[in-house]
Model the fold of this input.
Amino acid sequence: DGARGSAVTGAWGGSRMSHIRIVLCGRTTVTDELGGARLIAGVKPIRILEMLALQQGESLAKDVIADRLWDGRPPRSWVGTLESHISTLRRDIGCVGRSSALATTALGGVLTDDGVSVDVVELRRLLQAAGRADDRTRPALVTQAVDLHQGALLAGNPYSLWAEQARTEVETQLVEACTEGAHAAYRTGDQATARSLAQRAIELDERAAGAWQVDRPLGE
Done:
């Protein structure tokens, strides 16, 4: 499970927030600024981190977190139990206090970008930039986004509906961006990049017709 995916402790003392890196593509991991992995005790704190990291900077209501965490059947004492899990999560990633990067209010929880980077958030930003770019710069931006997709999003959480929806959304965005990037690279004469991005789109979705249009001529 996700707990085993980040089961090595790193040296990180004091109450001041250091930079942390959260990786959601593949097995969920948290590393400190020295590259040491942080141990998160328990699956539920990991799931909370995943939910908040997916929408970094945006608040997520506590009842939504609870509904996802207990598959629509939270216990009567879920408020206190949820707070306990969040407290555990803060401790394990080195984030102390309600006003820290992992903050809670009466309404919900939020993971800010104060000293925190999340791979899938960066991936989305790169794809947004690629969508606004011209043919010469688009392929490089898409390639950077692809490089961040080191395995399926939330691979350690294969069954939750919210995780599956997030996976589908990211993979759909990648397929579209890779296809568009492949065509852009083809138009500029960069056949190697065109084929690489087309093949990546096909790996994610073998029905990606636009990617096949680029890959087949280059392969002939």
In short: Confidence is low (pLDDT under 50) at residues 1-17. The radius of gyration is 19 Å. The beta strands are 20-23, 29-32, 60-61, 102-104, 108-111, 116-118. The first strand starts at residue 20 and ends at 23.
